[in-house]
Design a protein that fits this description.
4-stranded antiparallel β-sheet; about 120 residues
Amino acid sequence: VQLQASGGGLVQAGGSLRLSCAASGHTVSSGTVGWFRLTPGKEREFVVARRGGNVFYADSVKGRFTVSRPSDMNTVYLQMNSLKPEDTAVYYCAFTPRRWVLSAATSAANYDYWGQGTLVTVSS
């Protein structure tokens, strides 16, 4: 399984970005897809997980970020609105064929495959 994350960039606070995670080698709709982010000096932080029609967001992004269902092209999108400087990070998408309960899907250790990361920078 390979994951290709893209869509990062520089945006002003209050702006929006849409990240993409294109998967190959497995149909991601059959498992659990997650997004995490990493900031220098901090541990990897859970952002959102989707397992089928069920979605679980971190409190820090709830109401601002939306993860799509996988498209016909086996791609998952993360729409990020009302961005804040504290959202600045490298964002990673991850996948596991296992259908975790969403509380377990918040742990990076429960994912088997990772994309390469895409940098999001939010200026104040």
